[in-house]
Design a protein that fits this description.
By secondary structure, the protein is α+β, with helices and mostly antiparallel strands. It contains 21 helices and 17 strands. Strands 10, 11, 12 and 13 form a four-stranded antiparallel beta sheet that branches.
Length: about 600
Amino acid sequence: VKVDREEHPDVDEIYMSAVQMMTGSGGWPMTVFMTPDLKPFFGGTYFPPTGRMGRPGFMEILSQIADAWVNRRDQIDVGSVQIFEAIQKMHNSKSAPSDYDNTMPDEAVTALSKRMDWSDGGFGPAPKFPPTGQIDLLLKVHNRTKEKQLIHMAELTLRKMADGGIFDQIGGGFHRYSVDAKWLVPHFEKMLYDNALLTRSYLDAYLVTGDKYYANIARRTLDWVLKEMIDPAGGFYSSLDADSDGEEGLFYIWKPHEIEGVLGAQDVEDFNEIYGVTKAGNFEHGSTILSVVNKPVDVRGRASDRWLQEQWRKLYIEREKRIHPHRDDKVLTDWNGLMVTALANGYRVLGDERYLDAAVKAVDFTMQTMWQSERLLHSYLGGEAGIDGLLDDYAFQLEALVELYQAEFDPKRLEQAQMVADKMIELFSDAEFGGFYHVTEGRTDLVVRPKSGYDGAIPSGNSIAAQSLLKLYQLVGKDEYLDTVEKSVRSFAADMKKSPLGFLRYASLIEELTSPLQQVAVIGNGTYESSAEMLNTVNRRFLPGTVLAFSNDGKSNGVELLNDRTSIDGKPAAYFCHDFACEFPVTEPNELERLI
């Protein structure tokens, strides 16, 4: 049975944990042998067709498995039960709820600093994956403590990634991870979820520092998504392969004569100096992965930005003539939700209407196509949606709806958010211990019902569910949502104390929960334009955990935060609140900025 791990992450999660227990490591492709009742007893990652370099071949393994199945079946039965029990213990943790406090984010940051690569950014040795959860926590704790080291850790990492080969210097967007410690040589695959999460990291860094460098990286990433990853129905494709014409990275690498043929002798020298292009190259066969070796301002002075954009445009047009990497054109509800959130945030921070339009179309696609019989489906391909939704689908779609409301202020988004939230709680919540299971009850095709708050390359569904419910609670005032958040955090608190680096998104949530929750309500006077400056006073600042509500006609439309709020003397009014205790309303943006 061949499984698409993106369509069935629930299956992948269980059997990947089994392979990690059996071999000490994991990866894909993954092969697992199991008994008819789905208990794994042998597994590994890649097996070549025939043995080589001391690695057994797949045909050899099949013969050995067949022999063991016939002649040593009792050993297989005992081993499979032991592995099964270990999987159950890992995925069905029933630890008692534990208290949490405001020291836990600081402890996680301390642990991060011990793993920091102070030379090239990132945390730990190569291969290096984009550390978006780490950046999120660093920026939020810095917001409270103002410790310069924390912002330095975040900025060093973000700049090294964006200047490195892991970022597509010509077309925008990030590759999946870096093979080396310097972020130069990537695994050239591009994943939708990486680019959604990284966009948010760069937008936040821009809000914290005011440095337009980070805004430009976020913009180039979102522009790549709009150009290459949108399905005609409105959703977003999953990924681009690493290979083209049978060779990894071939689409993205350059040789000096190729660049000179496009840019001409007048511009190629400066371009090559910026991007480190030499005859020897920095990759295979004398080719070069473009990375920023010298800052453009050092090469061409202050007029370099427009010039550089023109060089990107010329090389992009030339690159389009090459054989393209294969695009995985299935649309996944959970990844789609992550990108909607990134686009909604991109609109709020950068003000580009294209981002809002794309986010609205994507959410409308999901709620029209993937929401069927009052449940979410997970995957869409070729005009058909299928596979029952998992926790991540509900959690990330909930986040997308809450964030999109704060960008377009359509009350129906909060109605949809409550619909998704209520169904998520009904289908996935652990009523006894708190938190959420990964799958619905009653699944007979899985050996366990997994439940985890651990962050991988993608944030855990549990942490995003809790963060989104906290915002939804502040907007609509439904106490059940806050109770669910508290139970969720407490359910994983003991695990967080043992392994703080595994639960960074929960640490970020605790940073918000143990600080005063902030709400801003803006009441307009009939035209959006007259309130825009007031709204942008909130949108253009780094205010983690703060929720924003807006009404242009004085009606609350079911948004609790807007109840009993009015404009003042015909002017838009802003109400700034800490834990729902509000200051006197103000009518000038500079007054709101002073309060914030």
